[in-house]
Amino acid sequence: MAAIEKSQRTLFIVSQHFVQSDWCRYELEYSHFRLFDAGSDAAILILLEPIPDSTIPKRFCKLRKVMNSRTYLEWPEDDSDKPRFWQSLRDTLQLQ
User: Fold this and answer.
1) Within its chain, how far is the Cα of 44 from the centroid?
2) Which of 40, 24, 29, 30 lies closest to 1 in space, CA to CA?
3) CB distance 9 to 42 below 8 Å
4) 31-48 per-position pLDDT tens digit
5) DSSP per residue over 1-63, as a string?
6) What is the mean pLDDT of residues 2-22?
7) Distance from the first to the final alpha carbon of the chain
8) By C-alpha distance, which of 48, 55, 59, 51 is closest to 24?
9) pLDDT the model gives residue 23
């Protein structure tokens, strides 16, 4: 948790496993004020796979809010799209 406090940016790699994990929920709750509520752009969300809103447990209401209010990156399924993904991530990191 100290790493989240000391970081300028935090990447959340969101997957089906993430949204089912109690530990990930704890990390999200721990960091939500600094990353989401304080108006900071320190959080960068990357969707590892498509996650329908209906599959996100209700206990992740903050994650739902963030996903609905912010732009996030999606990990490409096609290998030919991966260079574009990495460039978008670099651009996002430099803008913030």
Assistant:
1) 5
2) 30
3) yes
4) 665 555 555 567 788 889
5) -HHHHH-S-EEEEE-HHHHH-HHHHHHHHHHHIIIIIT----EEEEESS---GGGS-GGGHHH
6) 77
7) 21
8) 59
9) 81
